[in-house]
Design a protein that fits this description.
alpha/beta; Aspartate Aminotransferase, domain 1; Aspartate Aminotransferase, domain 2; 3 domains; seven-stranded mixed β-sheet; three-stranded antiparallel β-sheet; about 15% strand
């Protein structure tokens, strides 16, 4: 990871373990053939893949023949969801004699807080006419047996759930939820991208399980789907071609990636219990260090959660400004796959957080390389930025006591609201019709903060009739804000107009 950053974003991806990288380099340097070819170079590639499959299977506690290699957890999820539903729909259509209506048969159940690699396929099924239920967990992120039981119907084809939520770290009780599915004869798919190799999981309770290498020290671009023996004939391939992976996933496997995945699983398996203990201690150190400050809220269940993920919301600060200020940290403002959208986390909104708290959340995720020193750097950095941003907030009293004590005239102009994402207060020290000094307090994104301060710096010497130093578009260009931030510049304009009206 980049030098100078304290890396606490292991839930997005982990650095490749040096031992894994060394093995992959060694395999790449060999003169390997296609693993499907029956000559020595091909047999060598096939042997490497077989060895890796055994290592993955050992980590999961399953038979190697039940492990299908994919490009990652996203593809595994797609294969499990589309493949399982399609196979059952075909069987139902054949049984009922339906001609052309098979795509609309059945019902699928998931959680509204799932990763988009689950929600995307389920929503596609919904668009194709399948009834889909997106259940809402309780305010701590837990799906209860009763809620799942009530959602199941006679035609439910699949329940698909995360074991550990990628944003909050909340751990679902898979054994209890699986019992509900088994009672009703409904297959259960589990996305274990955040838990495989880190937490114990009763594989006997699961029919399909997705995992990926890059969450546990392996390379990106390789993952696996476990298919229970009882469901081996109840899944249709989604990628067709050469019939690799027993016909379930076509395409020549990259032997170096597969080998790296296998070794990463072996390393994670050997270190799993030690990692859990170490990560729990570090996570709690971080939690206690930050929740000692006021207005810091834990997102998700306080106990039923991964030792490696901590999600906190911060009252009274704008999330983008908080994140931008933490230049020495590599953390996430939400789902790694969605952090660039600028929208408040749909996971946290589902847990009842308002837009401000959802938008001001940070996810800290730990890995095997995380140290106590990393945690202390994170605590110090977040404390610093919280104090700085809260000090700038219009929620604080206007900083005009010195002007008032000197007997000068003070003008205040305010606009915006926290719920809008931007709130400003300009304080002006004026002499007759001229501004002598200006100060600004602002809650907003970094572009808004920069523009508000640029304007404040150009107010002294201006008169009431020409208070604004230019236009909202000029301010946007001065700070390099994208055009979609123009509306926030207009709130600066509103605050200046309010100052004029109160002069």
């Amino acid at each position: 990871m980049s030098a100078g950053n304290t890396y606490l974003d292991h839930a997005a991806t982990t650095p490749v373990d040096p031992r894994v990288a060394a093995l992959m380099s060694q395999v790449l340097a060999e003169s390997l053939g296609n693993p499907g070819s029956n000559h020595s170079a091909g047999r060598r590639a096939s042997a490497l893949i077989a060895e890796a499959r055994e290592r993955v299977a050992l980590l999961l506690g399953v038979a190697a023949r039940d492990v299908v290699f994919t490009s990652g957890a996203t593809e595994s999820n797609n294969l499990a969801i589309f493949g399982s539903v399609a196979a059952q729909q075909r069987a139902l259509a054949a049984k009922s004699g339906a001609k052309g209506g098979a795509a609309k048969l059945g019902h699928v159940v998931t959680l509204a807080t799932e990763h988009k690699a689950v929600l995307g396929p389920v929503r596609r099924l919904q668009r194709d006419g399948v009834r889909c239920s997106f259940l809402v967990p309780d305010e701590q992120g837990i799906l209860t047996r009763d809620v799942l039981t009530a959602a199941l119907a006679a035609d439910t084809l699949l329940v698909t759930l995360l074991h550990v939520n990628n944003e909050t770290g909340v751990e679902q009780d898979i054994a209890a939820l699986s019992a509900v599915c088994r009672e009703r004869g409904v297959p259960l798919h589990v996305d274990a991208a955040q838990s495989a190799g880190k937490l114990p999981l009763d594989i006997a309770a699961i029919d399909y399980l997705s995992c990926t290498a890059h969450k546990l020290g392996g390379p990106q671009g390789i993952g696996a789907l476990y298919i229970a023996p009882t469901h081996r004939m109840q899944i249709e391939p989604q990628m067709l071609g050469g019939g690799q992976e027993r016909g379930l996933r076509a395409g020549t496997l990259a032997a170096h990636q597969v080998a790296g995945f296998g070794l990463a699983c072996e390393i994670a398996s050997a270190d799993r219990e030690a990692f859990r203990a170490r990560a729990t201690q570090l996570r709690d150190r971080l939690l206690h260090g930050l929740t000692s400050l006021p207005g810091v809220l834990l997102n998700g269940h306080p106990e039923r959660r991964s030792p490696a993920i901590l999600n906190l919301s911060f009252e009274g600060v704008e999330g983008e400004s908080l994140y931008t200020g933490l230049a020495e940290l590599a953390v996430s403002t939400g789902s790694a796959c969605n952090s660039s959208s600028g929208e408040p986390s749909y996971v946290l909104r589902a847990l009842g957080r308002d837009n401000q708290l959802a938008q001001s959340s940070l996810r800290f995720s730990l890995g095997r390389s995380t140290t106590a020193a990393d945690i202390d750097v994170a605590i110090a950095a977040v404390r610093r930025e919280l104090l700085r941003l809260r000090g700038l907030s219009p929620q604080s009293p206007a900083p005009v006591a010195d002007w008032q004590s000197a007997g000068g005239q003070v003008v205040i102009g305010e606009a915006g609201a926290r719920r809008l994402g931007t709130q400003l207060r300009y304080a002006l020290s004026v002499d007759g019709e001229v501004v002598k000094a200006a100060r600004v307090q602002v809650y907003g994104c970094p572009h808004t903060v920069a523009a508000a301060h640029w304007v404040a710096g150009h107010l002294p010497g201006r008169n009431r009739g020409g208070l604004a130093p230019g236009t909202a578009e000029k301010w946007r260009l001065e700070v390099g804000a994208p055009v979609e931030k123009l509306g926030r510049m207009l709130i600066i304009e509103d605050a200046l107009r309010a100052a004029q009206d109160g002069w």
